[in-house]
Amino acid sequence: MQPVKKGLTEPIRNEYSFLMAVRDPEITRKCILDAALKLFAERGFHGTNVPEVATQASVGAGSIYRHFDDKIALVNVLYREWKAKFRKAIMIPPPDPAHSFENQFREYWARLWKFYRSYPEALVFLDLHAHGAYLTQEARMEAIEFEKDLCSWVEAGQESGVIGKAEPAVLIAMVYGSFLGLIRHEQAVGTISAGSEEESGKRAWALIAP
After folding, report:
1. Domain 71-207 belongs to what topology?
2. Residue 140's Cα: distance from chain center in Å?
3. How big is the CA angle at 88 (ends 48 and 152), to the nearest 5 degrees?
4. What is the pTM of this model?
5. CA angle 47, 177, 157 (to 5 degrees)
6. Would you place residue 16 in the very low, low, confident or very high pLDDT band (cuts 50, 70, 90)?
7. For the chain, what is the total number of helices (H) and then of strands (E)?
8. For residue 49, what is the enclosing H or E element?
9. Is the backbone peptide bond immediately before 120 cis, with ω within 30 degrees of 0?
10. Is 209 helix (H, G, I), strand (E, B) or coil?
């Protein structure tokens, strides 16, 4: 299979990509998921329709239905896959247990920023669709298992006396909510500096310290 050659005009490039997708179902599926991620992140679930996803992916609408039963199935697959990637990016490998809980927290915080810098649309998508009524139990389980991982870490810190005595899920929501607030601030005024990212980690730790 030949790679796309440099210098092709955009229409030819799009036609070539489409032909490649027809020959390889996995390429088609990836094109659809990439397009859906972009549109769902920009417009939300209800503001996006299947023909728009098809246009964005440079495939026919029929190709989408060969891979996904409907828009609900599409958003659930996308949510499960990205939530699993997010969980892995934050939790694996675990921070060095020999480090203080504050330093472990700072490592988690840095990983949040790294994920956002690498996949901004994915993080926006996950936040926007986290409580959608259209999510299946299977999709919700990805989020539930992720929260369990984080709660276990918080509980260990509470047992050590370095994290405040509140419901772990509440503390997690406080920290993650502050992170999402920083993202919205950045989207409104421009990229914040690496120094501000680090300083925000110190402030976030103060939210859960005793």
Report:
1. Tetracycline Repressor; domain 2 (1.10.357)
2. 14
3. 110
4. 0.86
5. 140
6. very low
7. 10, 0
8. none
9. no
10. coil
d(CA 92, CA 196): 25
Is residue 174 helix, strand or coil? helix
Place of tokens 């029929």: 62
Name the token pair of 198.
Answer: 């680090």
* pLDDT at residue 15 is higher than 90: no
Is there a contact between 168 and 151 (Cβ–Cβ < 8 Å)?
yes
Q: What is each CA distance from 2 to 10, 17, 44, 90, in whole angstroms?
A: 17, 11, 36, 36
Q: What is the dihedral of CA 132, 137, 142, 146, to 10 degrees?
A: 90
By residue count, the chain amounts to: 210
What is the rounded end-to-end Cα distance, in angstroms, of the chain? 59
> Is 93 exposed, middle or buried, given 0-12, 13-18 or 19+ CB atoms closer than 10 A?
exposed
Q: What is the mean pLDDT of the chain?
A: 90
Task: Report the pLDDT value the prediction gives residue 17, as an integer from 0 to 100.
Answer: 52
Tokens of 90: 């934050």
Q: What share of the chain is helix, strand, coil (3-state, %, to 5)?
A: 75, 0, 25
Quote the distance between the C-alpha of residue 105 and its chain's center: 19
pLDDT digits (tens, 9 = 90+) for 18-30: 554 455 889 999 9
Q: Which of 32, 26, 95 is nearest to 60 (CA)?
A: 32
Query: Are the CB atoms for 208 and 163 separated by under 8 Å?
Result: yes
What residue spans in the chain does CATH classification 1.10.10.60 cover? 14-68
CATH number belonging to domain 14-68: 1.10.10.60
